[in-house]
Hints:
- The chain is an all-alpha fold.
- The chain has one domain (3-84).
- It is 92% helix and 0% strand.
- The longest helix is centred in the middle third of the chain and has 61 residues, at 24-84.
Amino acid sequence: MNDNAFYQCKFFIEQCISQNPENQEMVKAYVSLIEQKTKFDIAFFSQSAEVQKNWNDNQAKVNTNWQTTQTDIAKKQLEVNQRNF
C-alpha cells in the first residue's frame, strides 16, 4: 500500500470514528489498517535493502568495466599514435 492510499484510508476511518466513537468495527478496521501498513512497510524496506545491495554490487561492476574499457581505449590510442609516427 502506498503512503497516499494509506493516509486517505486512515483519514476516512478517523473521521468515521470521530463521528461515531462507539462503532467498534471502525476501530477494528483502523487497527487492521495500521497492522497491514506496518507489514507492508517492513516487507518493502527489507526488499529495498536487498535491492540496494544488488544495485551497489552492479554499480561496482559497471564502474570496473567502464574503467577497463577506458584503459583499453587509451592503450589502443597510444598504439595507433605510435604507429603513425
